Hints:
This protein is α/β, with parallel strands linked by helices. The chain is built from five helices and five strands.
Amino acid sequence: MNKTTVCVLDDEAIVGDRLKPELEDDGYDVEVFTDSAVALKRVTEKCFDIVVTDLKMDGIDGMAFLEMVKEKCPACEVIMITGYATIETFRESRIKGAYEFIAKPFRMSEIRVAVKRAKKKVRRKGFVKLMTGK
């Protein structure tokens, strides 16, 4: 079975530096980006199973990135992380297809649990598609 692929996008390098080794230890294939335009280019080349993205960034913000990812890769599950959590941004992200919304500062266990749950959902979708052809 192929490894579950994870894209991490946060303009703060420390976030990717923390998440990459933890998620790789859990068996995921992880790519980290600090520039949303570079990450978007990569997403046009490859559909990741899971995306973990910051909300507030220079250039393409996390909400726009979420929309673009879901348009290109509808089966991808997107986990939003932000230091600017509000009810409004939570609602907007869910309407646009975010799987999970996590406030910063987060505990590593929160991310690991969210990614694990997202992986199960992605795998279920893949199984249904395999079985039904849809």
